[in-house]
Amino acid sequence: MESMTLSHDDAPVPAKGRPREFCTDTALAAALRVFWSKGYEGASLADLTEAMGITRPSLYAAFGNKEALFNKALDLYEAEKLAYVRQALDQPTARGVAETILRGALALQTGQSGDPKGCLGVISAMPCGAEADSIKAHVSARRASSHAALIERFDRAKAEGDLPPHVDATGLTCCLYALLQGMAVQAGSGASRTDLERLVDTSLTIWPSR
User: Fold this and answer.
1) 8 CB-contact burial (10 Å; exposed 0-12 / middle 13-18 / buried 19+)
2) Which of the four pLDDT bands, split at 50, 70 and 90, describes residue 57?
3) Least CB-packed of 80, 103, 116, 188 within 10 Å?
4) What is the C-alpha to C-alpha distance for residues 138 and 198, in angstroms, rounded to an integer?
């Protein structure tokens, strides 16, 4: 809520504050790259403020604390970097869904656009410090939402005859997520694009539908 002052006739008027001297969108994009490179726990406030080009008080004033900043960065990551997941759900076949997700993740995790390698969600969900417990819970909650959407899509594929009746939609989704998480860990560890392409191609050859 905006702070208020009183005029001579006691009518409330907005207080004049100093305008921000930085672009919040640019600063948030810089913070995203730090979190993506180092994970939540590994990104210090000094790392963040240096990359964002702002002071610590300015960070708090514009974004809140470190956890709030991370959540905003995660929103940006999902909106800009994970658009392929939303596109995948609209594919006409279950195999098309899987291929769109796997190849989208491949392009993202191998840093073809100059972005850091690996997956922000996986990197930030792996730390074991108590400070990161709420972050892990938040990342897991977001993952659960997309997990449920994929299960629903694969159940529809079964109903449409696109997937065999014996296929477990939940198990298939878990398998796909295991592949994605494995790709993210390998990409973050320096695996080449060729190696990860081979993993994607092999996974698609054993997919239970055409």
Assistant:
1) exposed
2) very high
3) 80
4) 32
